[in-house]
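Anyone else keep sequences and structure tokens together like this?

Example one:
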Amino acid sequence: MNVIHGRFDQAGTLRSRQHRLTAVDSGTASAPAARVISITSGKGGVGKTSIATNVAVVLARMGKRVLVIDADLGLANIDVMCGLTPRYNLNHYFAGERSLTEIMTSGPAGISILPAGSGLQHLTHLNTDQKRRFLDDLDSLHGRFDLVLIDTEAGISENVTYFNVAAQDILVVTTPEPTAITDAYALMKLLSTRYHQKSFHLVVNQVQQIDEGLDVYQKLTIVSNRYLDISIDYLGCIPQNPRMQEAVRRQKPVVELFPNQKTSSAFEALARALATPTEQAPKGTVQFFWKRFFTLNQGGES
């Protein structure tokens, strides 16, 4: 088995989880809101975008309506990884030239993608008006999708915290490398202490054996149990496989090119874990969280 599940509650209290679809509070009955999952990391090069792409494809094969937002606004990769050449991207959206629907493109297995433009340094610091407009426009899409996956940029920039606070679930990606573990902890610490995020999912990528993933999980839970009031939900590990690099070169998801590989099985197990409702009440709708983000950052960037 490639993905092992575990739960650890640092606060000493079991935090139940319930990943269910929620309704937008509009005063009338409406379509269920999409569940928003950020896929994030403290360090670059840990395979975050590969995980987002392959998990999205598996979820689509499961019958889910999936939207992937490439929120790595300065170094877009999802469209390249899928062999796509979109005509428009988020640069056109934030410039006011195109709507979200107009820049949306179709990817493998029918997933929808909001692509980001690469090499656009000015997008790495969105202003408040841009964030508010994106909030409103994304919220208008709530009935079209079951799940929204946000592939954030790596690190602890304002854009990273913005997209993570917007999500109902935060999936932190790391590897067994000491620097990646340290940076994953730093990211969770920032989101916990400044933005009051208390629940995180964890996946350990590029492991040689299953025990490596468990070791990383234990290290993070030991130190966070000592210094932070958070819970970490271990969703497992993805084995290192040269087929991953081949899939990247061929610009295809590994789950499509090599469906019988252990790595593909691990992605399938991870997708099932993310798609399975548990007992935690969701944070709320997308609107609720982004309003909360602006409340936490009053007087912030302009």
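And example two:
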Amino acid sequence: MSLKRFSQSIDGTIPIQALLYDDEELLGSQDNVGIYDGQQKSPRHQSGTAYITSHRLFYVDGPKPDSCSFSIDLSHVSRTDYYAGLFTSSPKVTLYLAGDVSSESNDEHAPSIWECQVCGNHNSPGFSPSAARICGLCGVPRDAADDSTEGSSAPHLSSSLPASGFAGPVQRSSKDPVPCPACTFLNHPSLRTCELCETDLPRRPSRRELQSAPVSRPHSPDNDEEGDPANMLIKVSFRKGGDKAIYGALKTSLNGKSTAEAETGALEFVSETGILRTVENSVQERETSMHDALQDLEALMVKAKDMVNLAAELNDKLTAASSTNVPEEATFIRSSLTQLGLHIDNAPVTQDMTKDERRWHEELARELAKVLQAGLMRDKGIVALDEVWGGWNRARGVALIPPATFLQVIPLLPQYTTPQVSTRKFVSGASAFSARLAGFLVMHGSRTTLEIALEMELDMEGSNEAGMSVSLCKEMVEDCEREGGVCRDDVGQCAIVGGGGVGVEVRWWPNLFVGYVWDGQSEEDD
């Protein structure tokens, strides 16, 4: 009967949630139900609980849950009917079943992890048979990858069929291209693997395999009623109500099944959609993780600030109590703070320490002066502005200074530095702490920009021009050129672009024409 043909036995002693697939959802349940197999009652299934999920109908028997429970895949349901009941007749929901169940028995390998031969994605087990047959990344069916191994055994099935001119499939010519079962690329008939994705191609049956078997009649089914469409149904009888809720859940599940089948068909034809959707989901998850990480970092900065304040309070109390008779406790606490990295002799200045913004900028300028003279400008007299800002923030730890506040502090530096540290802004917009470069060019003669940067590092160690980068040196040389201190030699081995030389091969000479009085020119015109 239809119940034996379409149902699968389950162990009803296991909780129903443990029997669900990863992509399956429980929609409703109702107890005190009975099952009709076709038009007749099923004697073994008259007192149990029915469960409707997004993929299956479960029946868990009450008296014998381990042996009389079963499930039916809703993909076999072609249509449904609802009977509200009359007098002593109970409400019933009728499920008309159709389809071939032989293919479902071949899906025993679905719970295992399998790798897609097209994109290499490892698909996890636990999904429903319809979802497990399709790669979750590219949408290529799993059966397409297995056709190459099953194709060689498929022609042997003709041995049990009657000899008929139209019973077998239409045979292709040996010169016809062979379509790939995974990517549908048409390959040359002599190839064994796909030229595009390297999937094994189905083999052509040989002449010996295509020979018809002796005429034989297939075995007749044991019961002719199984093929009768009128008996291909089951009924769920509701003895104590709940029929409307279960029928609504059943219709919801069947509508979702049809939508899923349409989406699956779309993925089979447009596999790029699945790849793009997966990439978008990965990017969104990465952005969400980054956002959460930044929030955690902000919370950590707040906690670190509280710990620093606590360490400062402890340090003040220990300093005030240093004259008491408990020096051992004070020494122990101070050493503990040092081991925890909370030694605050040089604690950074924060805005909450001062009420006046002007006072806060002055304290920041005093702190920056210590950083410059003790570290950043110890071995060089000119430093790029971004290098100063980055080094200062590294020294401050979690109490970072924004660029706007940094630019407001720079003009106050000369008040707290000895010798005074000032700023210089080039025409290109780059700011730096500098001194003039013209004297160096006069002393060393013709040099390229690269030679100037290297020789200033080696020969002028300890001067204001030592320790500059090539880009900063180039800015200063061009600034001297605009002031008339040096001349550009761009006729040598450099490229000529718009009348001016470019590149490090441009040589620079001292401007020896400065101060000359030319014929016809008075000294007052200089």
